[in-house]
Specification:
The complex is a heterodimer of chains A (218) and B (242). Chain A contains twelve helices and no strands. Chain A is an all-alpha fold and 218 residues long. In chain A, helix 1 runs antiparallel to helix 4 and helix 3 crosses helix 4. Chain A is globular and about 55 Å long. Chain B is an alpha+beta fold. Among the domains of chain B are: 49 residues, no CATH class; 116 residues, no CATH class. Chain B is built from nine helices and nine strands. In chain B, the strands form three sheets. In chain B, strands 1-9-8-3-4 form a five-stranded mixed β-sheet, sandwiched between helices. In chain B, strands 2-5 form a two-stranded antiparallel sheet. In chain B, helix 1 packs parallel to helix 3. The N and C termini of chain B lie far apart (99 Å). Classes of the chains: A mainly alpha (218), B alpha+beta (242). At the A-B interface, helix 4, helix 5, helix 9, helix 10 and helix 12 of A face helix 1, helix 3 and helix 4 of B.
């Protein structure tokens, strides 16, 4: 794994693991600015999974999420000098990621398909549903299957929400961003963030409400 | 007094503690007495809670290494020239650049079109009128009467060269046809010899004289030299015919 490689190189560079842990985000950013490849690897290892997850849940296509996640970090590398620390690094990277997605128009071009393709349905002619391709290391038990079924249903319901509301809900409830961070990422006002989250959750509630009640009845 | 609709509209922000203190208090009061809204809030909370419990979507195992390799390639790429830098900048700002380019192209196109457009001149009728069409038989007749130069082997008929505005509209006279005998001088000037028809109209004669004065002819040529010639001109409405 790359994180192991990073750790090994840190040791090679006569740094201790403790040094890595204690190094603040600002120090890593400074090192990236100076062209330190090791620091950039740290950045990728720490932030790319969440960027990929965000893009995947927005776009619903693993390959496109992969391409965009890579492009996002190329842009991060190129534009790191422009990061002034007004927001957190994660917020800044999310903003770039969503701009990449918007620039490529893939996200928006797929809006029509959003209504016809669901995560728990066969995808791109494959027999397996997209959600089934997600890694799952948990033991195969009845409870796990039930959880998985609910998760599939939730992922499907998420796809039924208008993209502008969906991204706000994902950033808030999945990624745990604050309203202010979401406003910064999406370049909208906090009031608009509040409205989009409320509408997105309401739509999700409408889609899921019956399902939850059934599950509770069980 | 808060109603259910207002309460449910604020429910999401209530869950995230995004309400103002008065709003928060009002929602709380409403919830204390409304089971329906409590149920609604519970469902909304459940949606939010379940989203928060979604497992992370793990990226492909090789993605991080591929990204680092891509950046390394970027670092090793030779210093780009100004055009490459410009192209990269354009590509990274595709949307505003395309908007500006569209505007400029449109502006240039409109400018080119408008540049070609000129105001329509207000041409007096008399200037539009003199279209000289001459039949050979008429020339022969006139020249046969007036000049022996027709017999010259290289004789050419006079042709109108320039029609300036005389400010006279023959069409205003409402009299057709007007038959005029005119002299086309060797220097290209035209002058009135006689107003044949309608006869005895001094006012019209003066107008025709003025109109002819505004015409410039390429004189008849005989033996390579300009020669004076008499022409009979028929002015029919706005046309002047020989």
């Amino acid at each position: 794994m790359l994180s192991v490689a990073v750790a090994e190189r840190i040791l090679d560079d006569n740094l201790t693991v403790a040094d890595e842990a204690s190094a603040s985000e600002a120090e890593w950013i400074e090192r990236v600015r100076q062209g330190d490849r090791l620091a950039f690897e740290w950045l990728v290892v720490h932030y790319q999974p969440s960027v990929y997850g965000l893009l995947y849940r927005l776009i619903g296509d693993a390959e496109e999420a992969r391409d965009l996640a890579q492009e996002t970090f190329l842009r991060v590398y190129q534009k790191i000098d422009q990061f002034r620390g007004e927001a957190s690094l994660r917020t800044w990277i999310y903003r770039i990621a969503l701009r990449q997605a918007a620039n490529h128009r893939r996200w928006w071009q797929r809006r029509a398909r959003d209504r016809t393709i669901s995560l728990d349905g066969p995808h791109n002619g494959q027999q397996r549903a997209v959600i089934e391709t997600l890694p799952d290391a948990r033991p195969n038990s009845e409870q796990v299957l039930l959880d998985r079924e609910r998760q599939q249903h939730l992922e499907w319901a998420l796809r039924q929400v208008k993209p502008s509301y969906r991204v706000a809900v994902i950033l808030r409830d999945v990624e745990g961003c604050s309203y202010e961070e979401i406003a910064h990422i999406l370049r909208i006002s906090v009031g608009t963030v509040k409205s989009r989250i409320a509408r997105g959750r309401e739509r999700l509630r409408q889609v899921l409400c019956g399902g939850y009640r059934d599950a509770e009845d069980d | 007094m808060m109603n259910c609709r207002k309460c449910q509209k604020l429910a999401s922000a209530y869950l995230d503690r995004q309400l103002t203190p008065p709003e928060h208090r009002d929602v709380l009061q409403h919830l204390s007495r409304c089971a329906s809204c409590r149920a609604y809030l519970g469902e909304l909370d459940e949606v939010s809670r379940r989203l928060g419990m979604l497992p992370p979507v793990m990226p492909p195992a090789t993605l991080a290494a591929e990204t680092v390799a891509a950046v390394t390639r970027l670092q090793q790429r030779p210093q780009t020239g100004i055009w490459t830098t410009l192209a990269n900048w354009v590509m990274s700002h595709a949307r505003p650049v395309s908007a500006v380019a569209s505007f400029l192209i449109t502006a240039v196109c409109y400018g080119a079109i408008l540049g070609q457009m000129k105001p329509i001149p207000s041409i007096p009728v008399s200037v539009r009128a003199p279209m000289i069409t001459v039949s050979a038989s008429q020339y022969q007749w006139i020249n046969g009467l007036s000049s022996s130069s027709l017999e010259a082997p290289s004789y050419t008929f006079p042709r109108i060269r320039k029609a300036q505005s005389s400010g006279v509209s023959l069409a205003e006279m409402k009299t057709t046809p007007i038959v005029v005998v005119a002299m086309i001088h060797a220097d290209g000037r035209a002058s009135l010899i006689q107003l044949v028809e309608p006869a005895g109209t001094p006012q019209l004669m003066e107008l025709v004289r003025t109109a002819l004065g505004a015409l410039q002819f390429r004189p008849a040529m005989a033996g390579g030299h300009p020669v004076p010639t008499r022409l009979i001109l028929m002015v029919d409405r706005m046309d002047v015919r020989g």
